[in-house]
## 1
Amino acid sequence: MQENYDVAIVGAGPAGISAACVLAGKGIKTIVVERGEYPGAKNISGGVLYGHDLAAIIPDFVEKKCPVERNIIESRLWFLSKSGGYSLSFRDRAFYEKQAFNAFTVGRARFDRWFAEQARAKGALVVCSTVVTDLLRDSNNRVIGVTTDRPEGDLKARVVVLADGINSPLAAKTGFRPEPKPSHIALAVKEVIELPEEIINERFNTETGHGVTIEIIGEITQGMDGIAVIYTNKNSLSVCIGANLSDFMESKVKPYEMLEEFKQHPLVAPLIKDGQAKEYMAHWIAEGGYEAIPQLCGDGYLIAGDSGMLFNALHREGSNMAMTSGRFAAETIAEALDKGDFSRKTLAGYVARLQNSYVIKDLKKYRRFNAFRLQHHELFTTLPRLGSFAAQQMLTVDGVPKKEKQKAICKKFRKEISWGSLIRLLWTGWRSVK
Amino acid sequence: MHFICCIKQVPDTSKVKIDPETNTLIRSGVESIANPYDMVALEAALTLKDTCGGKLTVLSMGPPQAEQVLREAISCGADEAILLSDRAFAGADTLATSYALTRAIEKLAQKTPVDIVCCGKQAIDGDTAQVGPGIATRLGYTQFTYVTEIKEIDTVNARITVKRKVEGGSEIIRGPLPCVLTVELELAKPRRASLPRLIHSLKSEIGVWNAEAIHGDNQKLGLKGSPTWVKKIFSPPFKEGGPRFDARENPRQAVEDCLKTLLADETFAFHLLKQWGQ
Ligand SMILES: Cc1cc2nc3c(=O)[nH]c(=O)nc-3n(C[C@H](O)[C@H](O)[C@H](O)COP(=O)(O)OP(=O)(O)OC[C@H]3O[C@@H](n4cnc5c(N)ncnc54)[C@H](O)[C@@H]3O)c2cc1C
């Protein structure tokens, strides 16, 4: 009963399903193999998706009832010390008028399912509860299909798309992606906290359907290179905090303890007060950036999404790169099928597409950013502390002349961080993202 | 032979919580699964089919999304699947459920006579264990409940021998076909579908029958046909433990205190003496 497919896709995340939608839409015989009980069962994300990349695959995603939680109309940045911190925010009417659904939150368990449904409707087969354990190869070592953990589990395909995410034992087996270094990975923990819709509207100063994202750095990651985020969903908040794996290994901080402490921070606690913790998850994030991108294609296969380390750590953009890389993979495969040639040379069109798009351009722009953060832990220790000290001093009304306060602040700065190193920090920081 | 297996889609009760205020199940966010007992019944039916040959039809009553469990059954080896789905079936208790399923089985039997109907012992979201026996009674088939093992199937004389759980032990009994079996979990371990079967199941047609298709009497279906009313739902109060004795500081004292408390209880002392007496 063995059937042959044009394309076998490993993983029903945004990358795999995007590829499946485009391929099946062109009438190409496509099968997706997913290890979770359903698409999204194994997927965690802080939950912001981007309309631009999704619309390139499903133009009418709003009409097709994409399970949007809230349309993001405001972004906040927080720089926190242990007891307080700075907040900067930007909101614009454009984000709910002209540019609605520029960015929006979703629950991945629901979104991935919906997305897979769209691929199914276009004719792709999505097989769940099945793990791809290895790749099939011919005598020339070309990839010609996948092996799964089910009885009679081999699947022959002309091209295989590896969209298996960052945390995949398959990559270790195939050797196509070198085992990521701890410094190329962040470990994130996330809690979904339930609150009534109106309370969220009130606390975030929004209307129903509108949402806010908060990105936070500072002393909250206990000296480690990391970040926390709070995203508003319809009637819950995603609270997520993570740090570089190499820092975790050194500091021995326990991720869930860090999350608990973060939830008690004076800026965070009032937002989540009386909420009910609903879900708790931990996941890896691909942070290696440009330098860590493996070879993205070979004879008979392509790598898309997180599996190819396509993640922009600075802007928290991963799902969009996953979708767009999945789409490019599909477009390249369609050409290869026309030619009847699945060699690396033909499939390299995929890499060219990525290079000409924002995906590789952005990753290249920020290629020094990962190393920069890892070399400047003061961003997560001294600086937020000093910053908070300065603001707190200036805002305390106690009869001390401001000039004296300023002096004391400068003295403290000089003692803890030299002006030279501060300027160097700014300069290298700027260079790492310019 | 023609085998039928009835499967219910249920919320995964291992993940369901009870709202302490309203005493109702919080089903939101809880995945639906095939009732685990029914998957054992399916395995039993598949094994019987493997040995005797024939056809296996799976049957489920539920909302449209219940077709998921039927696909799962097809992926394991069922030949045909029928979903009973109609607003008229909604709100059915065990009486109305067994009525609808019986009508469907009778309809299937008109085309190919039925030999064995396999059901789970009970559904994990209701624990009543009444639907299987209800079907057997309505159809007039022999009924074997709480089956833990199928000992023998004698196709020549149309008889089956099974081992079943009874209070305090088990019994082995034989009876004529056609019959209904309701099975215990230990009867079999559900198989894992092969990849080709799984793919086949995703492409299979699932027949959907409404009340009209089974010529159901509307008075006997769904809420109308259900004399059971839920009067009240409550969570039994959490049992407080008895007294505690902290043995960390002074274990000797703790044991002494414990014994003193126990022996002060007359019934306990009585039981203890009786045990020693034996
Ligand atoms: C805490 C957190 C917050 C994030 N926040 C955001 C955000 O706000 N915005 C954003 O854009 N991105 C965010 N990301 C990143 C984003 O989630 C990923 O970039 C995106 O999910 C990548 O999609 P993917 O399809 O490549 O991989 P995944 O979504 O990881 O999907 C891979 C799929 O493959 C399956 N799979 C793996 N191995 C096998 C196998 N051997 N056989 C079968 N199936 C397999 C998995 O089960 C999984 O379903 C976040 C990530 C994390 C961890």
Note: Helices of chain B lie at 36-52, 67-76, 94-111, 131-139, 195-203, 251-264, 266-277.
## 2
Amino acid sequence: MADTIVKPPTEEDISRAEMLDLYRLMLRIRRFEESVYRKFHEAKIGGYLHRYDGQEALVAGIIPQLQLPHDKVLCTYRDHAHAIACGTSAREVMAELMGRATGCALGKGGSMHLIDPERGFLGGDGIVGGPIPVSVGVGFALKYTGTNNVCVCYFGDGAMNQGGVHESLNMVGLFKLPVLYILENNRYAMGTALGRSTGQPDFILKANAHGIAGEVVDGMNVLTMREAANRALAHIRETGEAYFLDVECYRFVGHGIGDDNVGGQKLYRTDEEVDKWRQRDPLLQIIRDLKERGYISEEQIEAIEAETKLEVEDSIVFAEASPEPPLDSLYEHVFSE
Amino acid sequence: MAKMRYLQALRLAMTEEMERDPNVFIMGEEVGQYQGTYRVTEGLLNKFGDKRVVDTPISEIGIAGMATGAAMVGLRPVAEFMTWSFAMSAMDQLVNHAAKITYMSGGRIKCPVVFRGPAGVGTQLSAQHSHSLEAWFAHTPGFKVAMPATPEDAKGLLKTAIRDNNPVIFMEHAGLYGSSGEVSEDPDFTVPFGVAAVRREGKDISLIAYSRGVAMSLKAAEILEKDGISAEVIDLRTLVPLDMDTVVASIRKTHRAVVIQEEWRNAGFAAELATRIYEQAFDEMDAPIQRVAGADVPMPYAKNLERAAIPTEHDIVAAARRALS
Ligand SMILES: Cc1ncc(C[n+]2csc(CCOP(=O)(O)OP(=O)(O)O)c2C)c(N)n1
Ligand SMILES: [Mg+2]
């Protein structure tokens, strides 16, 4: 595990506007997740809740580079960030989390099943490893219809130990399908550290074994992440073949609401470890980089904070004012018309 | 006797059986170092060490197969599914392997394995995490299916399951984990399979349930009592084997029945139960059997929709009134 801060690319490959956009997106995600946590404890949100704090660069460095809605995104239950990055409004996401009729799944899905197909977001999946077999079909269809588009499939390090993952990677390698795999390698599957869940933590080796090329990426730095994603996407669009990014990252908070308190996390990780990773906070890094390049002033930082806060507060007001789904929608959508 | 919670009773059963038989071991996701997702296995790693409390990767096919294989050659695995919702990818190992090996081998192989974990609905976990799948397993020859409703049964039935020489599907209810009651601390105490319990005597109608449906039925019986209706509540305890003698004896007394399940209505266990009552006691019935079950929809997330999808004591009361009208 690298614990040195990896320097971001220094070439002027990214404009000031783009860089500010990356910062804004990551900040929106962070502030959204923090507010969602508060709302859970006010009992406005139920079920399970999995936050993305610390992993923002994995969506900010990739999803804005996609051609949505033609490219497609699949992910896990840790999906609030993916929805927001795909362009689903904070209002629709917050309303879904509160189980309201105005939510992106009309209140039927909740936190783990955000979805927005019109924006290319095919949803969060509550079953570990669940999206990977589906990605084979999405990739197949993108190829079948003669597009140049890519399916981006996110999943966790724990998911690498699901049988279905290996069947699917083999099929993607065999059929040469345009899928970008993003392994959100945050080192833990609930309380199980990477080294306790597999005899072979070299995931690139596993991708290669199925005929899929890949590389390890520092996912704590959004510029590094973005560069790797662009390279991978170009490879897929050119060759039509899948690519696999094993992205080193860390979740700053508990797995879910069950171990969000420090006590729960102490069963499997130390405060020192969390602190060490927090020093690589992707938000701190992008601010530092923006400042180093003279791209941002203190006033701008404050202004971006303020507008982000407004957006999140607005989403809460909107969601709380929204009606619950009508009771007669219970039997709707079991089947399509 | 000691007062304890349902989840503690489960833990006590495993502790006692591990002390009794060195071939009993525990395996599953987060059962050891993390102390169990629902804390059912808390402290067991410390007590028995990592040879006998095995943390696994998130690999349900592997878990089901490993437990089955170990049982085929003489160990007595107690494999936890973090929830039964996650057992679906393991269905092949469960149904095609664990449940069939004894029969396929002409009885030459025993498969003494327990698959346990929480099932049930009710905390806004939405479509992929809210299941009662007992009908799938009761449908499959070769499985015994136990669904305890009380802390005492949680202990007594789990001990019987561990001592049984067959694969046992042991479905707990997450909503019951915190419920408490008196539990025997006698290590020889067990609850036999195939013996239903009459939880409340009555003469006007039989409410037949299992798992959380029992507590709901007892509440319903109290409400009905205020209207002068005397309801008998039967807890099936195990669906396979099924104690029809106790059920039929109750029907002979009350001549009316409500069958209760939390799972989806269509093709659920209550349908089997109702059919057996008709087969064995049709002449005793004074009214059609009423069925209380979950809505036939993937579980919605929104609180109001979820509430509408889950059966309650009020649905049982209404069903009883229909049967009595
Ligand atoms: C098949 C299955 N087994 C178990 C679970 C319970 N569960 C939910 S998340 C999780 C950990 C997953 O870890 P990882 O894949 O690393 O993703 P992360 O949560 O770290 O993003 C587990 C065990 C599940 N949802 N699905
Ligand atoms: Mg992980």
Note: The CA atoms of residues 106 and 329 of chain A lie 9 Å apart.
